[in-house]
Structure formats: structure tokens, C-alpha cells
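Hi F.,

I've been meaning to write this up properly since the lab meeting, where we talked about keeping a consistent format for the predictions we share between groups. The idea is simple: the sequence comes first, exactly as it goes in, then the C-alpha cells exactly as they come out, then a line or two of notes. No screenshots and no reformatting. I'm using this chain as the first example so we have something concrete to point to.
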Amino acid sequence: MSDSQDPYNVPPRSPFDPYAPPERPAAADPFTSMPPRPAVHDPYSAPPYAAPAAEPFAPPRESHGDLYPDHRPPTHDGAHEQYAPIHVDRPVETASLGSRMADEFIAWLKTLASAAVYATLIVTFGFQVARVEGQSMAPTLEDQDRLIVNKFAYRIGSPQIGDIVMLYYPLNPDKSFVKRVMAEPGDQVKIIDGKVYRNDVLMDDAFVPSEFKSHDDWGPKVIDEGYYFVMGDHRNNSSDSRHWGLVPKKYIIGRVQLRWWPVPEARTF
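Output, unedited:
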């Protein structure tokens, strides 16, 4: 084929000429089966991203106020920035031994004062500890027995027949006695040969041993309003209403609730 017949041997034309024949393909690369691709440089492309190398493993660090104890934020260039530990100062106790002792002493005084107030309220309105002196209530109560007297019982109620009560001695209110209530206001009481009759009914005295019974006579008498007739269980060795008269209710301190000493003989009433 001559040059005039070569369709590719034509004068160069504008690449925009729609009638321009196709360009001659480049010679094949002897080392590949495909024609070589021209290297194209894109000025707007960034170099391939290479991830920063990982830090070698290190054990966790102890932190004393470090803002980032185990992790440090990366900077713009991929490096790590060291943060200095932040320490929080706490106030140091500088109170002297003398001031602490003074505070403890004041707290102790407050506790003692509160205990005294509570004890006063309990003794005044609630309960009272008493000690028996003498044998007038034997064998129910013995000399030097310790008792708990319920003072609140008769603030909401009245003494009942058979109650063991603590009362002020009517002839000398500075003294106090322990007796048993035998009759209440409005009752008629009489004693014949040591036997007590209340409203003409013989009262049970089985708790009185035969050697403690008396053989005296008393009455009959109707108990005045607001008064009570009391006797000791040791009938022939007791100073009671047979000798010094009736007891006004306001002189009755409270009901004997418990004998707590001696411990082996403790009991309630």
C-alpha cells in the first residue's frame, strides 16, 4: 500500500474536527499484551495517606491527678503531647491538741446535761427507783429490796384494790412508805380479829403467812372521797391506815411495778 492510500497518513487536523480520521494506535509493548498507559499527573490529587505507626505497647501509668491518665489526645501532626499531672491540694488539719480536747470536753458536757434532763423527766413523770426499808411488807417485799415504781400509772388511772403502791407518809410527807391498797373511796372497811372485810365481804389474805396475821379490830368506816385505805402485808408488824388514817390520792406516788434486786428473786407486780 502506497502512502497515498494510507488512511492514517494525513495531515494533522484539529482535534475538534468531526471528520478527522482516528489516530494511529501506538505500537504494542513487547513485554505486555496491552499498550502502555501514559503516566498522568493530577495536580489536585494528594499523596497517598500513610497512617502513623502505632506506639509500642506500654503498661498503664499510675495517675496522681493526671488529666489524661492513660490516653493522650493526638496533635495535628499525629504526634502525642504530654500533659503534666494536676494535683489537688487538700487543707491540712492544724487544730492543736488543746483545742480538740476542749471540743471533746464541751461535747461530753452536752451529753451529760442531756442525760440529766432525760433522767429528771423520767423520774418526775415516768419511773422511779426505790428501796425497801423494814419488814412491813414481808414476805412479799423484804428489807433492802430494789423496786421500780411506775409514776405514770396513776396519772391516767386510779389505784386498784390489791395494788402495791409507794406513798408519802401522811403525818410526815418527807418520808415514803410501801403499802397495799385494801379499799377505795366509798368502800366500807372493818377488821374483826385481824380479818379484813370490804363492804361486808371477807378479803382474801392467803398471801399473808399465819405468823404475820394480827388479831385486832378496826372500824367499820366508810372511806372518804379521794382517799384510800392501805395496809402492810406483815399485819402484826406494820404501821398503816389502822394507825395513822386514810391516804389522800395526791400522796400516792405510783405503783410498784418491778422488784429487780436481788436478781434471783426479781418479779413484776
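Notes:
The domain at 129-268 is CATH 2.10.109.10 (Umud Fragment, subunit A).
The chain is about 15% helix and 25% strand.

If this format works for you, I'll send the rest the same way.

G.
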